[in-house]
Amino acid sequence: MYELSLDAYDDFIKLQWYHLHGRYQPFFFNGILEDYSMNYAQEKLGVVVDGGRSVEKMLKSVKVHTVGFNDLEILLNSSLLKLKNLRTSFYTVEKKECRLDYLLFKEKLKNLFATRKQKVEAENLCFKVTDQSEILLILPHVDPSSVEDIYIEDSREIRDSELDIGEVVQTAQWKNARTLTLENCVLSAPLKHFTHFDEAYINVGSISMGDVIDMKNGICQRNNFEKFKRIHLYYVYVSDEEELIRLLGEQTSDWSYTQVWLYETVDPRTALRLEKFENRITFQTRYVCPNMTLIPLE
User: Fold this and answer.
1) Domain DUF38, which positions (predicted)?
2) How do residues 213-230 score in pLDDT, each as one tens digit?
3) Phi, psi of 20, rounded to the nearest 5 degrees
4) What dihedral do alpha carbons 9, 14, 18, 20 form, nearest 10°?
5) CA dihedral of residues 214, 215, 221, 227 (deg, nearest 10)
6) Rounded to an integer, what is the distance from CA 158 to the centroid of its chain?
C-alpha cells in the first residue's frame, strides 16, 4: 500500500509518494515509480529543488507552484492510485506576492483530480486546511467506497477555531467513512451528519438539547448498530442544560460520578450508554445484561 502526501505553502511545496515499508529513496521497478520525496522552495532567482537521489539544484525563472504541480501531475497520471493514505496540507498565505500563484495552484490541483478517468482510491484521508474549500479540492474525487477514515485539522494555528464543513458532510465520501478525528478545530455542521460513524472524536463548540437528542436517536436507530463503537462529543456550551437532562430520561445508577443513561437500540443484544461530563458527552455500546433497565427506543 502507498501514501501520497502534499504540503503546500505560499512559497514551499513538499511532495511525497512512498510505499508504507518506509523507504523514501526513489527507484523504478518495471517502469513504475515506487518512492518519491521532493522539496520545492521559492527563491529570488527561481525554485530550489532537492530530495530523493537528486542533488539540490536551481530552476531559474520559474514559480514553485508550477514546478511542484508539474511533478505531481506526472505522479498522478503515471500511477494507478490505490492508496492507504492520502494526505494534503494547506497553510495560510503569509506573502502577498505569492497569493495569486497559490490560488491558481489549488485550482489546477482540483482540476487535476477531477479530470482523472478513475477516481483515486484511498482508505485514510487526512486534511490540514484553513477552510472547507481546501477539503473539497480532493474529497469529491476520491472513490467513496474506498474511504474508511477521515482526519481534519485546522492549520491556521488558532486554537479551537471554527471550521464550517456544511458542504463536506453532504458528500458520498463523508457518508461512507467509518471513523472521524478532529484536531485544533470546532466543526460547524448539524450533529445528524455524524451518527453514521462507528468511532469519532468531535468538537462542536455550542450545542442545543435538540442536537443531543437527535444524535442519540440517530445512533440508536442505526441499521448497522452492531458496528458502532463510540463517539466522543466535546462542547463548550449547551443550551438549556437542565431541560436536556430531563429529556434524556431516567438516569441509571452508576459507580462513577458521571451522569449515565442506557437506551434500547435496534439490536436487542446491545444498549447505547450515554455519559455526560462537564464538557463532553460520550455515546458507546454496552451489552445488555439480565434485569438491566433500559429507556425505550423512540
Assistant:
1) 107-235
2) 999 999 999 999 999 999
3) -75, 0
4) -60
5) 170
6) 18
Q: Which cell is 188 given?
A: 460547524
pLDDT above 50 (res 29): no
Contact 261, 240 (CB under 8 A): no
Identify the residue whose cell numbers are 490541483. 109
* C-alpha dist (Å) from residue 203 to 28, 46, 163, 185, 234: 44, 42, 10, 7, 5
CA dihedral 110, 113, 117, 119 (to 10 degrees): -120
Amino acid letter, 98: C
| pLDDT at position 102 over 60 | yes
Task: Round to whole Å and give the CA distance between 11 and 32.
Answer: 29
∠ at Cα 83 (88, 168), nearest 5°?
50
Q: Are 38 and 50 in contact (CB under 8 A)?
A: yes
Q: What are phi and psi of 10, to 5 degrees?
A: -70, -25
Integer Cα distance of 192 and 233 in angstroms: 13
Give the residue, 267 or 117, on which the prediction is more confident: 267
Average pLDDT in the 148-162 region?
A: 85
